[in-house]
Amino acid sequence: MSRQVVRTSKFRHVFGQAAKNDQCYDDIRVSRVTWDSSFCAVNPKFVAIIIEASGGGAFLVLPLHKTGRIDKSYPTVCGHTGPVLDIDWCPHNDQVIASGSEDCTVMVWQIPENGLVTSMAEPVVVLEGHSKRVGIITWHPTARNVLLSAGCDNQIIIWNVGTGEAMINLDDMHPDVIYSATWNRNGSLICTSCKDKAIRVIDPRKETVIAEKEKAHDGARPMRAIFLADGNILTTGFSRMSERQLSLWNANNMEEPMTVTEMDTSNGVLLPFYDPDTGVVYLCGKGDSSIRYFEITDQAPYVHFLSTFTTKEPQRGMGYMPKRGLDVNKCEIARFFKLHERKCEPIVMTVPRKSDLFQDDLYPDTSGPDPALEAEDWFDGKNGDPILISLKNGYVQGKNREFKVVKKNILDGKATKNTENSSPANKSASPTPSIKSEAKLEEILKEIKSLKDLVCSQEKRIIKLEDQMSKIAI
Question: Which end of the chain has the smaller Cβ count within 10 Å, N or C?
């Protein structure tokens, strides 16, 4: 009788743990829009969640420590005239976030350092170029101020956010709706999945498709495709029998997949979240109540199932914390922010270790917040690998550089002026310190006013409740 040999892996015993109730974000009206994005974006400072909003689109931006019940009057980012479909934090500035909407625009926002005090309706820059709703937003991993957007007009636009210009327009490569678009590790290529069931690898600066696989998955439901650190491509999709599949492809030869893993029969789109440092990929199905995770290796069968984390409630969306936001002292290798119908629940993935020392094997140097090159260099054809940082002493938040938009068109100066007035955090750096201190003073006064308003409303509520109590006592 042959004994089955269990593959050794340091991630074999990874376990998930949901946060306690007091560490969740409660009473949030998560968006009900029918779109297969994650609805949540996270960085080491803030969690952003797309919410239901009457008369337009909005999303919440909460400091990570702002747990508990979120008041209905909590300020939002609310400049879009249609529902927000996708949001993404800038990897090089933890206060800058981009949003795409049904109103066909992309907006870039700068959040004040300590979070929102009043609702923000004026973005730093509005990027207009799509003719239909914009459902995909993703920042370049290594170049500062380079942003990709994909819309239901079947085109991809790559923007220089620093000037507000559309630099590259890929409008003839996709015959149908684009389901996903992701960068490779150094941002020289993008990989897309489309409603025509094809996966395409595109060199955006040469505006050419360098690899294509038709019918990557036979099913009609949406696919997702992401680059792995070694340049291979991982896709999630559906078979003809509606079975969910996970496939691995060699980008240099996409005739046949390297491996296909069949999972279950369900119609929820699988959102893949990949950690290039550990080679672990997490699959979160929309409408599922579980997170499956796999280890990707360079030896057959390449994709190794690790485990499944299951909760009772189905997930409406999912946020994924960058590696520099994790607690290395607790051997935390991933942190998710799971959206329920009315709350956001952090879920921590941990490798059980007895030692309190820093675990070098779990935390190789990871992508840091510094860009490898400027937008102009990238558009000129240069590439840069991510600038890595060590997590040995934990990630220390540096000072974020002021985000500015330099319009080339003089007529656009007016728009820039308005956005600068909308929030003190958006004001350009000024040579006179008095203006800076005035801005700071204005921000403090605003916060005091909002707190006084809150206290006043609570006092009125207390009087009402006491009045009700006295009636009951009689």
Answer: N
